[in-house]
Each structure stands twice: as C-alpha cells, then as structure tokens.
C-alpha cells in the first residue's frame, strides 16, 4: 500500500470510492462515514469520475517535462514496492538511473 499522502494513495482511494458508489447501494453519506472522509470529498470524486467516463486518475498537469520514461518509472515503482526501505542511492543503482549533479 502506498504512503497515505501520495498520488498513488489518492488515486487508490478515489478508485475505491467510485467502486463503492457504482457497485453497491451506498450513497455519499454512507461512503463518507465508511472511509472517514467528508461528504464533499466523496461527492467531488464521484462527479469527476462520472464526467470522465469512470476514470479516477488525476489529470496530467503542466510543468517541467519528466526526465525518465514511463517504463523506467515503472521499474522504480516495482523496486520500491518490493523493497520499500531501500535508500535512494540503492534504488537508483538497481534501476540504472542517474541522480544528476549533487551540489556541495
């Protein structure tokens, strides 16, 4: 399971909210009480998912382009999932990813 305040955790939570809404007879209030979230959070997640055809993922954001490919990112995530207590240096060595310049 992802740490509680990460993008993956939020997407997992949103997927669970939408699944409860679609596949059970639970409404906003019941889901919010079950998951210990505000009703407005549950309502927002469900409405966004409904407007995007059931997609609960965050939309891409503007900003600096990533320096690694999606495949390399998946390799890193797999390493973290199997060995969550590895140091950053060990993860980059296993994934064969450079850290770039390290400032003094």
How would you describe the overall organization of this protein?
The chain has 104 residues and is mainly alpha-helical. The chain folds into two domains: 45 residues; 36 residues. Helix content is 57%, strand content 0%. The protein has five helices and no strands. α2 packs across α3. The longest helix is centred in the N-terminal third of the chain and has 17 residues.
Total number of domains? 2
What is the molecular shape? elongated
Distance between the termini: 35 Å
What order do the SSEs take from the amino end to the carboxyl end, as H and E? Answer: HHHHH
Round the mean pLDDT to the nearest integer and report it: 86
Considering DSSP H and I runs of 4 or more, what fraction of the residues is helical? 55-70%
List the helices and strands and how they pair.
Layout: H1 7-23, H2 28-35, H3 39-51, H4 70-82, H5 88-95
Helix pairs in contact: 1-3, 2-3, 4-5
List keywords for this structure.
104 residues, mainly alpha, 2 domains, 57% helix
Concise summary:
The chain has 104 residues and is mainly alpha-helical. Helices cover 57% and strands 0% of the residues.
